[in-house]
Every structure is written in structure tokens, then in C-alpha cells.
Design goal:
Layout: H1 3-26, H2 38-56, H3 60-70, H4 84-92, E1 97-98, E2 101-102, E3 104-115, H5 119-130, H6 135-151, E4 156-166, H7 171-186, E5 207-218, H8 231-244, E6 253-261, H9 271-277, E7 282-283
Antiparallel strand pairs: 1-2, 3-4, 3-5, 4-7, 5-6
Helix pairs in contact: 5-6, 6-8
Length: 284
């Protein structure tokens, strides 16, 4: 064998190893194949490259469909951790960019605060009775509730937040999760208390009040992670929603539900009630 042929063989081998490394970086699950025979590895690399080329020349809609099928279930790494962040990253690559980012986010923010005079209850009752169902009115309601909570941050006891991102092609899934979270919060109340119009309630007792917001908002830039872990983090989450809900006069806000308990002026929320009904709350 001539020196030229040996050099070509070495170059081909190095190129093949680089190719395998790049495929393994893009697809973590293919690392398992490196322990198999070279024939199996080569076959898997050929199949992966064929699928990549097919998707590269297909339309964005077709790629979104195939991507959803291929990456629908979170893969598990060797240490058992979910690669859900990587899956969301792949899912967002071909999403259209909106004012607040890509896709749709369903989020939930909960704050427990002590109210000696129940002023937070009075505010929520007034806003609930004066609000409408247009995007602008829902945005104003959300902004007012967030600002009121921020003004009462000295009274905060605990908090919690969570969210889930959806592709625009899965708007039905986002709506379903929003309804599910809203129904779970509504089911925690044995009855709904509605004060008489123009009446002044007497004998109000100081109590801890839990306020919950469930929202469906366009994009992925609204901050929902961090409430409950620190006072600053909780403020950032609420402030982010207060600002984003008003973008484009509320057109980015698809839906919102506001819950608070207790609503009856003679009812007091005990620590046991909070632990049983709101175990997710984190003490600040």
C-alpha cells in the first residue's frame, strides 16, 4: 500500500470519527450504539443522516409534525435525568417569533399573605365585579392583581409558581392544561361566597389569604420560575406577568383566572388548611 493510500485511509477514519461524534452530540441516545459493532454504528449514522437530509428539505409544517412524533416523549440520560429542556429547544427552533417569544405558555402563580384588615379581599371582590371579558380588560385585571400583590410584599408568607410551554400547533393542549389547573383550584373551595352589593361586612377577622392566578399567554419570555424560593425571585415572577400581560393592549393574554381564599369574612384560613390544600407553597 502506497503512502498516499495510507494517508487517505487515516483521513477517512478521522472524518468518520468526527461524524460519529457530531451525531452523538445531536442525539444523546446514539451514544449507546458506540458500544456496538462498527457495522451497527455505521448503519445508524447513515439512517440519521438520511432523516436529517429529508427533514432539511421539507416544509416547516412537515418538519414540525415529524419533530413532534420523534421527540414526543422525553428521553432519559444515563443518570436518569430528563432532557426536557433539550426537547423544548428542538421544538422551538421552527416556531414563529411573536412579541413575547415563541409558542404558548400556561403558568400558575400563587401567593399566601397575611391580611389583618382583609383589604386584599375587598380589592379582589371589587375587581371581580367590575371586569369584562375582552383581552384589554383581562390584561388590566391581571396587571392590577399583580401590582396589588407587589405592594403587599411585606405581608407575604409563602409562594409558588410553575409553567409549561406549548407549540402554537398544540394550542388545544395549552387550553386543556389551563382548564385543568383552573378546575383544580376551583375544586378546593367548598362554596363560593358572593358579598351583597353595597353592603359593609362587619366582624372581619385577620387571616392568611391565598391568591392564585392561572394564565395562558403567548410566547415564552414571561418568567414563571422562582416564586417561593426568595422574596426577590417572587417579585420578579409577579412583575414579569404584570408587564407582559399588557403587551399590545393585552392581545398576548389568551385567558386568566383569579382565585382567592378565604372569601367569607367570618372564615379564617389555618396553617393546616394551607398545608392540606396548598402543599406546593414554599415558605418565604
Amino acid at each position: 500500500v502506497s503512502h498516499r493510500e495510507k494517508a487517505l485511509q487515516i483521513l477517512h477514519k478521522i472524518s468518520f470519527q468526527i461524524y460519529i461524534a457530531s451525531i452523538a452530540w445531536c442525539h444523546p441516545h446514539i451514544n449507546m450504539l458506540t458500544r456496538c459493532s462498527p457495522l451497527v454504528v455505521a448503519a445508524s449514522c447513515i439512517l440519521s443522516s438520511s432523516a436529517f437530509l429529508a427533514n432539511a428539505f421539507s416544509s416547516p409544517a412537515a418538519f414540525a409534525v415529524s419533530n413532534r412524533v420523534a421527540f414526543g416523549r422525553p428521553m432519559r440520560s444515563a443518570d436518569g435525568e430528563s432532557n426536557s429542556f433539550a426537547l423544548n429547544l428542538f421544538g422551538k427552533m421552527f416556531e414563529e417569533e411573536g412579541p413575547l417569544g415563541k409558542g404558548i405558555t400556561v403558568g400558575k402563580i400563587q401567593v399566601a399573605l397575611f391580611s389583618a384588615d382583609r383589604s386584599i379581599n375587598s380589592f379582589l371582590e371589587d375587581r371581580a365585579g367590575s371586569g369584562g371579558n375582552s383581552n384589554y380588560e383581562l390584561a388590566r385585571l391581571t396587571n392590577d392583581v399583580c401590582l396589588t400583590l407587589l405592594r403587599k410584599s411585606d405581608d407575604w408568607v409563602s409562594a409558588h409558581s410553575e409553567s409549561k410551554w406549548f407549540s402554537e400547533n398544540d394550542a388545544g393542549g395549552a387550553e386543556s392544561l389551563f382548564n385543568n389547573w383552573a378546575n383544580k383550584e376551583a375544586a378546593k373551595f367548598e362554596k363560593e361566597y358572593i358579598p351583597r352589593s353595597g353592603s359593609e361586612e362587619e366582624g372581619k377577622l385577620g387571616t392568611t389569604v391565598v391568591v392564585s392566578l392561572v394564565v395562558e399567554i403567548l410566547g415564552d419570555s414571561t418568567k414563571f420560575d422562582g416564586a417561593g424560593y426568595s422574596l426577590i425571585g417572587t417579585k420578579e415572577v409577579i412583575a414579569s406577568l404584570a408587564a407582559d400581560c399588557q403587551v399590545e393592549d393585552g392581545e398576548c393574554l389568551n385567558a386568566v383566572e383569579v382565585f382567592w381564599t378565604p372569601s367569607d369574612p367570618k372564615e379564617v384560613l389555618t396553617n393546616r388548611d394551607i398545608i392540606v390544600d396548598f402543599p406546593e407553597l414554599i415558605t418565604l
